[in-house]
Amino acid sequence: MGLFDNRFASKNAAMSRAFSIDSEKDKQKRNTAREPAAPKMGICDKCHKEALLRSYRSREMSVSDGAASFGTVVKHLCEDCAPRSKRFEDANVPAMDKKQVKNLMRSAKKGLL
Ligand SMILES: [Zn+2]
After folding, report:
1. pLDDT tens, position by position, for the chain (113 residues)?
2. Going along the chain, which residue ranges are E strands?
3. Where are the domains of the chain?
4. Distance, CA 95 to ligand 1 centroid (Å)?
5. Where is the composition biased (Basic and acidic residues) (predicted)?
6. Ligand 1 centroid to 4 CA: how many Å?
């Protein structure tokens, strides 16, 4: 984790340096340019507040001329809108579904009786 972070951070530093040097090239190559993943100030894609943003890549399918193509879409989200996997799952997925609860209750009863 630490090693990865360090490598990531130095890579981002190098990238943002490169970005500021040839910002004009960047404009032209916008579609192919890689987004630095380091947090930076900007407008959140979701809540449109100015905040410290992180970029998140998500795969999206687009259909053009009847042909489906997969592309990577980068979204800039603030801390509040960021998909934090654990919190996300906790909020949206119940700990157990009803069947599981029933089964658990049943086996618990069996154990008691
Ligand atoms: Zn937001």
Report:
1. 555 677 767 766 766 666 665 665 656 555 555 555 578 899 999 999 999 998 888 788 888 788 888 888 889 999 899 887 654 445 555 566 778 878 878 888 888 66
2. 40-43, 50-64, 67-78
3. 1-34, 39-82, 83-113
4. 26
5. 22-33
6. 26
